[in-house]
Amino acid sequence: MKIEALNILLVDDNPADARLIRETLTDSGAGALFNITEARTLKQAVKEAASANYDIILLDLTLPETSGMDTFLKVYETAPSTPVVVLTGLDDETMAAKAVRAGAQDYLVKGQADSHMLVRAIRFALERKRRTEERGARKLRSESMAHAQEERADLRMISASKSFKEVEEMVRTVAQTSNTSVLIQGETGTGKGLVANAIHFASNRRTHPFIEINCSAIPDTLLETEMFGYEKGAFTDAKQTKKGLFELADGGTVFLDEIGDMDMRMQPKLLKFLESRTFRKIGGTKDIKIDLRVIAATNRDLETLVSESRFREDLYYRLKVMVINLPPLRERKDDILPLARYFITTYESSLGVVKKLSPDCLPILMGYDWPGNVREVKNAMERATILSGSDDILPAHLPEELLRTSLAQTPVVDPSADMTLKEVEREHIKRVLATVNGNKSAASKILGISRLTLRKKLQDLDVPDVNDT
Ligand SMILES: Nc1ncnc2c1ncn2[C@@H]1O[C@H](COP(=O)(O)OP(=O)(O)OP(=O)(O)O)[C@@H](O)[C@H]1O
Ligand SMILES: [Mg+2]
Fold first, then answer.
1. pLDDT, mean of residues 328-342
2. Is 353's pLDDT higher than 70?
3. pLDDT band for position 121 (50/70/90)?
4. Confidence (pTM)
5. How far lies 402's CA from each of 342, 373, 379, 432, in Å?
6. Beta strands at 210-214 and 322-326: parallel, antiparallel or unpaired
7. Is the CB of 260 under 6 A from ligand 1?
């Protein structure tokens, strides 16, 4: 289970109302957790609800084509497993009762519902859905072994360089121990999430849950609730006791991503858990013991955060028992081409064509720094596979940054040469065209001129015309 932004479908024909609801949600402080799509008509709402997997639908009942229960039923029947919260201008008790009986999670009246009520309605609706799913998940537990196998297919780790082979070795060693905390450090896109998954699925916890909590995506005030859960009555909204993600992960692994962003107030609570393996729900009086491995990851330098008093030193040492450092791709260049080829095969399998990287691409890929690391290679190869259509992958299909870097590595003009401006221009254009295999669109982008201007310059400078692409 991942904590990601909630996908909300907001159905309201009145743009001003929709904006107000959007703002209300954003103002609630939980805004970062919401990803809102709007629909104005019943037709759009039904189409959206049918095509995408929304976590929740906020539904106005009076739309241009329909009103009242008809609206509710059409949307509800399109996506029966998605909770619907009615949010309408009609303050009508009978209608509210009808809607709730028919399956609405809540009925709120616009103008009366403040951000607090709205967020609470959403949380309750999701909580109910989660509980229903949990019941389903328990049934599925016995099948989780098969599921784990399936997930592992996505866990292919490419390692050609010496330093990444060491990382793989470390993953195997760490997987043997099943209680030790692990700290994974590395720049963005170096594979921290992948490594955390790999540790879990190689360990004897693999048949239990792997739960990812992104500390930077969850507002500080919600993190404790999400991690530890709460007892009924712990705060105004706590109408029911709720299990936190730690408890749900019992037996498995919790992956605390972006641990460097964890709030200072939350850190001692995590430390206490790591030391005693027990925790308390918010508002709870008894210690709950669970069996978990914690893997934490960060792309920030925790030591610096400690020296700036933004991360607790005791927690740092507690997490640091086993450290896996993922080197940036520029420091393990031997992985670049195997990764690129691997990603091409993953995309081509969906397109049904066998593609190769043309030899001209190799120095370009090797000469680039890859600040976005493996993720950047993955995205570049996805793009190139699409752009190249039925051809092999040529330099022109690579992202502009790569081509620019490649050009920058060879000087434009021989400094000793005595050239006119026109000659310099001519040489430069020829060089750029050669880099992109004569592709004029790609060349004009790099040169910062329009295709038309390039065409004209080619004529004026008398550059032999390569095939017109
Ligand atoms: N060695 C590898 N072999 C194959 N795929 C990899 C490898 N390393 C990373 N990937 C893939 O690259 C992408 C980025 O990796 P991942 O999300 O694990 O990085 P991250 O370090 O967690 O990044 P961030 O800091 O941005 O969260 C993922 O799709 C992952 O599967
Ligand atoms: Mg990650």
1. 96
2. no
3. confident
4. 0.65
5. 19, 13, 13, 12
6. unpaired
7. no
Is 341's C-beta closer than 6 angstroms to any atom of ligand 1?
no
Block residue for tokens 């060349």: 443
Supply the CATH classification number for the domain 6-136.
3.40.50.2300
Q: Which option is the CATH number for 329-409: 1.10.760.10, 3.40.50.10320, 1.20.120.80, 1.10.8.60?
A: 1.10.8.60
Comparing CA positions, the residue from 177, 179, 175 lying closest to residue 275 is 179
Distance from the CA of 175 to the center of ligand 1, in angstroms?
19
The domains spanning 6-136 and 329-409 adopt the same CATH topology: no
Contact 274, 294 (CB under 8 A): yes
Task: Identify the pLDDT of residue 31.
Answer: 56
Query: In the predicted model, is pLDDT for residue 97 greater than 90?
Result: no
Mention every residue, 6+ apart, whose C-beta is less than 8 A from residue 16.
none
Letter string b/e over residues 5-36, b meaning 16 or more CB atoms within 10 A of that residue's CB: ebbbbbbbbeeebbeebbebbeebebbebbeb
Distance from the alpha carbon of residue 395 to the mean position of ligand 1, in angstroms: 24
Q: Where are the alpha helices (H) located in 308-420, listed in sequence order?
A: 313-319, 336-351, 361-367, 373-387, 400-408
pLDDT in tens, 448-463: 899 899 999 988 888 7
- Spatial separation of the C-alpha atoms in residues 60 and 9, rounded to whole Å: 11
Least confident of 110-114, 143-147, 182-186: 143-147
| Cα 259 to ligand 2 centre (Å) | 11
